[in-house]
Structures are given as structure tokens and as C-alpha cells.
Amino acid sequence: MLTSKGYIIQLEALMQQKQAMPGAKELIHAFQMENISYLILTERSSVTADEILNQLEHCGIYGVRKENIYTSTMAAVEYIVTHDKKAIDVDYIGGKGIRQVLTDTGFHITHHHPQYFFVGMDSNLSYDEYQDVFTQLRKGSQLVSVDHRRIQMVDQVEKIGNGTIVRMLEYAAGVKAMNFGCGTRILLKFASKHLPYSLSETIMIGNRFKKDIVPALQLGMLTFYVAGSEEMMKQGINDEFHPDYILDDLTGLLR
């Protein structure tokens, strides 16, 4: 079922809880053997591309390169650079993956009146550190969410996600975040610019209907929904609004 078009794959469709999903190893191998362009998309921006590659290899998924990884922080900085030529001073909370993208882009990280404040997941922050973010937002910094998960799974336990933290900051500071997390069309738009195809020639593969498939459908992309354990009726799938293809797992793409 593979074509020579470009593919964008949600990271969680390949790997969950440190384990490769069925068909993930074979799919990436097929991409490499057939020289197919692809990106692995994630809003787990707190980790670096190298760390994501190590996680994939730990699961037995080999051959992925850094240029195949695209994070929500990358989309955020590309959008800001495109739309705000005066943007230079930024600050952030989150892991070193965010810092690496910001510095590689040429932004100046400062705690003194940053123009943009990037917020990614950091489970070690204190109340006082969130207070510092709140203070900068009240002084006029633009809030930027690069991980909008309301809940995240850690070692098979549900925990508060970064999206919940962002909403707390929005409410406290009376501001609205720029959101580049999964589920946004802007993330897919900027990711697709790194493939040699138009959006209509790019295929989206995801395992979450609302966050992966819906924005892709809205952009006119061909979609493959890996249903897994999601109950399709509860996701809003119906005769009028549905993925182009529904798969039990990734092996369906190889038949």
C-alpha cells in the first residue's frame, strides 16, 4: 500500500511506553529500502532529537536520522521567525530539547523581558518557578505552548500534562497561548514544508483520531488511522467525517 509520496507519522503510532508498536520496525525499514521521504512528528519537545533516536533504537527501530524528526518546538520557532522579524529574546521552561532548538535558531535566551516564553513539560519545576513564568507573561511576554497534552502517560500511569499547565498559566495571567502541539493544523503545515511534496501529496499516519487525523483531513491530506484500542464511535467518526483508511496496526500499510 506504500506509495512514493511523503509521509508524516505521529511518534506515538511508532512507539509507546518504550515499546515499538506492531509493524513499526517493518514500516521504517520499508521507507528506507524504497527511499521514501518521511517525518516522525512529536510534541515531546523537551527531549532532543538525539534522545528520540536513542529511544527508537532501544525499541529496535533503526536507521532513523535527525532530519526525520520534527518537533512542535521546531514548528513554533519557524512560525515566529517567519511572522516576526524582530523576534530575538526568548525564555523557556522544559527540557534541553527546547533549549537546543531555540539556540540553534539563533534566539537569545534571557530572563529579562523575553518577547516569547516557550512552555514545555518539566515535572521538576517548583511553585516559584511557575510564578516567574506568570510574572513574565504579565509583563507582556507571549506564551507559546509546544506540548499541549492535557494528560501524559508515564510508566503506564496517567499524569498531568503540559497542556494543563499551559491552561493554568493562561487563566492566571489572562493571556492566550500560541499553540503548536499535536492537534493543530499549523504543526502539520510547517512539518510538511520539510518534505518535497505539497500537503495534498503528503500522507498522515496517526493513532489518535482527533489529534492526528482531524487536522490532516482539514488540510486535505490523505490519512491512515491506526485505530488500536480507541473506540471509533466515541471519536466522532461517521459516514461524513472519517479517515481515508482505518488500520488495526501499521502492518496494514505494508500489505
Automatic annotation (TrEMBL):
Name of a matching Pfam family: Hydrolase_6
Write out the GO MF terms: phosphatase activity
* Entry-linked PANTHER family: 4-NITROPHENYLPHOSPHATASE-RELATED, HALOACID DEHALOGENASE-LIKE HYDROLASE DOMAIN-CONTAINING PROTEIN 2
Please indicate if the UniProt record lists Hydrolase as a keyword: yes
Q: Does the keyword S-adenosyl-L-methionine apply?
A: no
This protein's UniProt keywords: Hydrolase
| Gene Ontology CC annotation, any one | cytoplasm
Q: Which InterPro entries match?
A: HAD-like_sf, HAD-SF_hydro_IIA, HAD_sf
Q: Give the highest taxon in the source lineage.
A: Bacteria
- Its source organism is Solobacterium moorei F0204
According to UniProt, the name of this protein is: HAD hydrolase, family IIA
